[in-house]
Backbone:
């Protein structure tokens, strides 16, 4: 039993961090097993039996128990096909086999198009066991074998897939009538129509066929159902109802005529059947409460959508307006502020100007107070020179320096102190390169004038 | 399946001379095993397929081919197609095939035939059991004559739906013929054993379909073959499509031809019909070998001789409905077993009708190319399908004949044969191109009887290193991909009278493949430090209680991992 299968696709690498006790991790357990019988045949079985028995002896009880546990593979022949046989049917003549209900003959009325091939075979066998003429003869009966022929014919038709379809196409026994008004009133709408369309669905080339459903079906399912049946692809055909075509060679025209007639009849029936189904679907659709319900729901949802849309539009509009107003307000405020700022600036400037003017007056006042740094009445040239320097200084300093200088000069009455302040200022400006020493006529010559 | 020992006095193993017997409704065969090789024995007429028929003429008993010829002139005293009647009530038998020979009837709560089997005019009522005994006695005689030693025991094959009551009846009938039945085995299992016993057959896991197409019935069996142990998963029995229905096709064909010339229906006269039947069967067999067969009957009806021919193509056309019946039967039982045609590894054709080339060809079309269809026309080394059952029986006989009857009884006891089978495959994951997705590699197949043990060797990644052994359960399903059909410019013929349904060409072709789905994770293990280009051996051992032992080790290296999963 050493099967050494080779696998060429490689094993995965061990994931990072994988850990198991002694490199093994038990994770699950085997799924439940099936008890089955192995065949007591072959050398490998004998080896198994030796191991399994191991000097043990089994009893009849062991046998029964083991057999009960084992899954059965042979089907029970009994069951299912046990319809009572209608005496009328038993006296049928096999010659009108075309009119016979093949399913009923085999006892499969309950199954019809749903009967599996296996069921048909079994049903046939059951009927043969009962009705074979040789058996009846053996039992001393002299009945004719007419019904046995019916059985054979039914089987021939039903075990031939082509013939079976032809018969199933016209098997009225499988038709389900649409419900009456009363049935619908009694609340059988879904149940009854389900049965109708289940039966109609047998003709569909496309399987499975969507179910009719009930009041709880979803819109999608219902739409699916109607789409399916409005586009029904049917294999139904009507050759089974052909009139017999003469089998002899003499009447060839007659034969051709019959064939043409049959062909036309088949086509006509097919067209009628398509129309019939369409009408059926129209009828059920007209009375289908689900369709109304879905329409109402759709309307309600449409309305809701409209309202929602309107509300949204209004909100958008309101929002836009509010935004606009806010923007206007902001602009206005900004403008006002700018205006205020502007005014403020003007005032300050004026004040500064005034201050400068005042300070300049202080400066000029200071040199005047110091009598232009001469004793006695100051000659015009001296006054000129001093005022020239003062104006030079004033022209080269800004408002702050003006204010600072004025502050220093303010209150000074002594000519020397005044002169000191001025000469310091002149020096500062000369050092800073703002004025040239040469341009200064009076205020720098501290030592020269002999003033002190 | 064991035999109630009481009716046949058990022979001591040393005194046994056992053969294999296949007894059908149509034919029987006998086989012996010499040096582990089974061979089917020809009877005194040189036939290996011995028609299971008894016929009496002036008190003399004929069997086989000679008895079959009596169906024409002496049908009332000829008993045929009786095997399935054994152990049944008259109520539950189908007498259809006995219509042209002695009819069965009810007799003292059993079934009997009333025939003139002795000299003189007196008729006797011979029970089914006695008929079977007489048939078996003849088989025993042929086998004893061949081997020069009295045969006293046998393994006999039966259909899988043979009831205990039927086996009981057959056992008693054999005992009365001086044959101790060592064991009854199922016909399809015998056929499989016949193939598996060939020295070139490797023991492995496979799903096998045995299609036994006989004369009056067709039986199909799906078998899980796991390490030489066999489990039947599904069966189907069909009495509507079998060898006689092919005979019927030819009968009708030649009758129509005869009617055309002579305006006489040969089927309306019993003797004409008997001739027609025998010659139809002969033509059918000839068509299995040649592409033409002649059909020739002297005085077919009202003294008119009839000669005709038929070629194989014509035959295959008129027999199509029966062939298609076989196809549906086979497809149906595969489905019934919960399998798909893609799950089937081997199809064994057994039974006389399996000689027909077209049938084997049809099966080749149903199953994928990977499935081996074992039939004479598809596999040159195939075993004669008519001999499979008897050969298998002979092989089994040689395996068990040395055991005491009591031992055989106990070893075949249901307490031994009823065992747990895995519901899912168990396998190990490896990786393909896509690193994230594991690929399931089955190690143990579903439907393996436990205890069972299997080993695989799995490659390691290119560079070696530490590897992960992940053991999981796996289920398979069928993936269908639609392939657009190639437009082959075929015009669709007039819908209305196209009884030939050729329109399957128009549908988009489907490509079907079996894919594994990873299920329940059972365990993980690590094998460390594997070498470049190495292999890891993984062994999975499932015990009878479904506990599992897993071992993994690098091939050629020491040590390894071992772990257990407790029983569920
Ligand atoms: N070479 C052949 N070609 C075609 N059919 C054949 C060939 N040989 C035998 N047969 C047919 O096989 C059938 C018999 O099959 P087999 O010997 O397996 O029967 P069986 O198992 O006894 O039958 P039954 O199903 O009635 O129990 C007959 O219908 C016979 O005509
Ligand atoms: Mg057989």
Residues:
């Amino acid at each position: 039993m050493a099967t050494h299968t080779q696998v060429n696709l490689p094993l995965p690498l061990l994931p990072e961090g994988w850990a198991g006790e002694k490199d093994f991790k038990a994770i699950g357990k085997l799924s439940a097993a099936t008890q089955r019988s192995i065949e007591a045949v072959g050398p490998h079985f004998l080896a198994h039996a030796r191991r399994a028995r191991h000097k043990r002896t089994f009893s009849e009880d062991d046998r029964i128990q083991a057999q009960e546990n084992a899954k059965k593979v042979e089907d029970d022949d009994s069951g299912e096909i046990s319809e009572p046989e209608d005496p009328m049917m038993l006296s049928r003549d096999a010659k009108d086999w075309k009119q016979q209900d093949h399913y009923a003959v085999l006892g499969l009325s309950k199954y019809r198009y749903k009967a599996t091939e296996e069921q048909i075979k079994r049903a046939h066998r059951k009927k043969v066991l009962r009705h074979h003429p040789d058996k009846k003869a053996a039992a001393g009966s002299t009945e004719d074998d007419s019904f046995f022929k019916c059985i054979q014919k039914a089987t021939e038709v039903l075990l031939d897939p082509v013939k079976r379809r032809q018969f199933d196409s016209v098997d009225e026994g499988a038709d389900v009538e649409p419900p009456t008004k009363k049935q619908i009133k009694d609340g059988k709408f879904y149940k009854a129509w389900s049965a109708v369309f289940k039966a109609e669905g047998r003709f569909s080339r496309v399987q499975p066929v969507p179910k009719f459903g009930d009041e709880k079906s979803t819109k999608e399912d219902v739409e699916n159902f109607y789409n399916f049946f409005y586009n029904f692809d049917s294999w139904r055909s009507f050759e089974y109802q052909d009139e017999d075509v003469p089998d002899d060679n003499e009447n060839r025209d007659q034969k051709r005529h019959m064939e043409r007639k049959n062909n036309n009849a088949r086509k006509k029936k097919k067209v009628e059947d398509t129309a019939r189904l369409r009408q059926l679907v129209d009828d059920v659709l007209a009375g289908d409460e689900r369709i109304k319900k879905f329409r109402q729901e759709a309307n309600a949802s449409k309305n809701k959508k409209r309202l929602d849309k309107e509300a949204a539009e209004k909100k958008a509009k309101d929002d836009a307006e509010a935004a606009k107003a806010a923007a206007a307000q902001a602009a206005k405020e900004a403008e006002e502020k700018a205006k205020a700022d502007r005014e403020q600036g003007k005032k300050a400037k004026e004040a500064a100007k005034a201050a400068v003017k005042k300070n300049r007056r202080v400066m000029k006042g200071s040199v005047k107070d110091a009598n232009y740094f001469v004793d006695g009445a100051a000659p015009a040239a001296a006054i000129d020179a001093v005022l020239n320097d003062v104006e030079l200084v004033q022209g080269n300093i800004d408002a702050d320096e003006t204010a600072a200088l004025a502050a220093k000069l303010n209150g000074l009455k002594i000519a020397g102190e005044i002169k000191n302040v001025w000469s310091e200022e002149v020096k500062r400006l000369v050092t800073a390169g703002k004025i040239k020493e040469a341009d200064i006529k009076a205020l720098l010559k501290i030592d020269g004038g002999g003033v002190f | 399946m064991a035999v109630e020992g009481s009716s046949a006095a058990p022979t001591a193993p040393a005194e046994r001379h056992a053969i294999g017997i296949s007894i059908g409704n149509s034919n029987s065969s006998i086989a012996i095993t010499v040096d582990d090789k089974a061979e089917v024995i020809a009877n005194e007429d040189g036939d290996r397929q011995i028609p299971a028929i008894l016929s009496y003429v002036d008190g003399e008993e004929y069997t086989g081919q000679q008895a079959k010829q009596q169906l024409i002139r002496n049908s009332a005293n000829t008993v045929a197609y009786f095997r399935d009647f054994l152990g049944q009530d008259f109520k539950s038998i189908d007498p259809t095939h006995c219509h042209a020979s002695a009819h069965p009837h009810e007799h003292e709560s059993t079934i009997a035939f009333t025939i003139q089997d002795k000299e003189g005019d007196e008729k006797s009522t011979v029970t089914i059991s006695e008929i079977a005994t007489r048939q078996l006695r003849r088989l025993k005689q042929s086998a004893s004559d061949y081997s020069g030693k009295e045969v006293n025991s046998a393994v006999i094959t039966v259909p899988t739906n043979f009831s205990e009551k039927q086996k009981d009846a057959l056992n008693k009938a054999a005992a009365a013929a001086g044959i101790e039945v060592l064991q009854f085995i199922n016909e399809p299992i015998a056929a499989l054993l016949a193939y598996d016993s060939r020295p070139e057959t490797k023991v492995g896991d496979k799903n096998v379909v045995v299609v036994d197409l006989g004369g009056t019935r067709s039986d199909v069996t799906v078998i899980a073959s796991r390490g030489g142990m066999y489990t039947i998963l599904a069966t189907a029995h069909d009495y509507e499509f079998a060898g006689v229905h092919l005979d019927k096709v030819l009968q009708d064909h030649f009758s129509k031809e005869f009617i055309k010339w002579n305006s006489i229906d040969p089927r309306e006269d019993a003797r004409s019909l008997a001739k027609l039947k025998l010659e139809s069967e002969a033509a059918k067999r000839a068509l299995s070998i040649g592409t033409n067969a002649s059909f020739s009957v002297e005085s077919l009806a009202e003294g008119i001789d009839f000669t005709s021919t038929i070629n194989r193509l014509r035959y295959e056309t008129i027999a199509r409905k029966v062939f298609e019946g076989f196809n549906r039967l086979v497809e149906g039982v595969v489905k019934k077993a919960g399998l798909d045609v893609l799950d089937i590894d081997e199809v064994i054709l057994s039974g006389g009708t399996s000689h027909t080339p077209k049938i084997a060809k049809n099966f080749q079309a149903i199953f994928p190319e990977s499935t081996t269809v074992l039939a004479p026309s598809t596999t040159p080394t195939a075993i004669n399908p008519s001999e499979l059952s008897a050969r298998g029986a002979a092989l089994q006989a040689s395996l068990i004949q040395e055991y005491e009857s009591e031992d055989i009884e106990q070893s075949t006891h249901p307490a031994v044969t009823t065992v747990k089978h895995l519901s899912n495959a168990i396998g190990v994951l490896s990786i393909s191109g896509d690193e994230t997705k594991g690929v399931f590699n089955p190690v143990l197949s579903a439907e393996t009887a436990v205890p069972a043990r299997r080993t695989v060797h799995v490659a390691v990644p290119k560079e070696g290193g530490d590897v992960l052994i992940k053991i999981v359960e796996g289920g398979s399903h069928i993936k269908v991909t639609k392939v657009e059909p190639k437009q082959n410019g075929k015009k669709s013929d007039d819908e209305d009278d196209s009884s030939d349904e050729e329109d399957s060409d128009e549908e988009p072709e489907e490509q079907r493949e079996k894919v594994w789905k990873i299920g329940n994770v059972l365990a993980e293990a690590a094998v460390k430090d594997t070498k470049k280009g190495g292999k890891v051996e993984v062994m999975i051992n499932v015990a009878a209680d479904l506990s599992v032992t897993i071992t993994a080790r690098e091939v050629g290296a020491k040590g390894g991992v071992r772990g257990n999963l407790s029983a569920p």
Q: What stands out?
A: Residues 447-452 of chain A have pLDDT under 50 and may be disordered. The two ends of chain A are 137 Å apart (CA to CA). Chain A touches chain B through 81 residues (CB under 8 Å).
